[in-house]
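This part of the workshop introduces the protein records we will be handling. Getting from the letters to the tokens is the skill we practise here. The record below serves as our worked example for the rest of this section.

…
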Amino acid sequence: MSSDAETFTSEKPILPRTSKPLRQLLFASAGIGIVYYATATNRQPILLEPPSSRNPTNPIQDKQSSNPEEDDLISTGTSYVPFFPRTISLPISPSAVPTTNSTATPTLPYGTSTPSSPSKTSEDYTLLGLGIRRVSFLSIQVYVVGLYIATSDLPKLQESLVRAFFTSSSAGDSTVSAATTLVENEKNELRNLLSETAQGGRGEKMWDEVLRGAGVRSVLRIVPTRGTNFGHMRDGWVRSIDARSKPGMLGEKEKEGLAESVGDFKAIFGAGKSVGKGRELLLRRGEGGELGVWLEEDAAEKEVKGERAWLGGLKDERISRLVWLGYLAGGNVASEEARKSVVSGVMDLVERPIGTIDTQVV
């Protein structure tokens, strides 16, 4: 036995032993090679923040949160502005605030709901969809935008979308356009129309029809992920107005006076004003298309964070309609994520027969 053991131990190892420093050098070289390979072969966009595990495509369906008290908060998909509220509250009538570009700045407590009374003065709005606006090939995040619909107007939006779909597809067939529900193939067609990127296409004309005549009150809630000035945001909206006021969307007669209204719109977002990271900017479209704008006060200037300052208003419905279309339809929308999310919210609405929907999207 001992001779066998001696014979075995006297054999040379299969691989030569190396010194400890040399082994460390070999491992380090292997690690560098792996990192180089991964970098050279990875074609993913540059990540500007840790990726979120949640998919914001349809955030209104996401009811999970780490805290049960946050069930009314919806994940946005970015750590800069992590959540949007499921509902917000604003004055019920434009008459409650100035409708001209006044310098007066009455404030309203953020999210305040008026106690039950015979004369209701505020209206709740429910989130329909949201997304991140990104710019440049680096996909730099600018702000999160959410579309809210007056909760009591959700049935009205449902009906107007279904009617607009059947009207555009029936070619005057009154029997078809009187239908109140969609079958499976019609749902797929509506989803494709609302998602199409053709400028002036059928989907954009459907949204244009709904915004013109349905009388649905809505709000665009915008919260920057980084400090930005009004000039950049305003210029983006003006470009959207110009792109969607070309022949086919607006007739020559309807364009009369539009340039003057665009000038009034620019004046609301005057030079030198800015929106800090995390501050809320609200654009509200009233029943007749009138525009109202609020900005959350800077916490450093106010004792109570969340108070809103009135910036101004505009009665010309064309301005708000064309700005809204810049988020909802056609090519080069401000946020493709927001458009997809809104489409998902719309499909959730129209899946039910007209008149059977309650005032809750989620």
Q: What stands out?
A: The two ends are 79 Å apart (CA to CA). Residues 1-15, 33-66, 94-118 have pLDDT under 50 and may be disordered. Residues 133 and 335 are 5 Å apart (CA to CA).
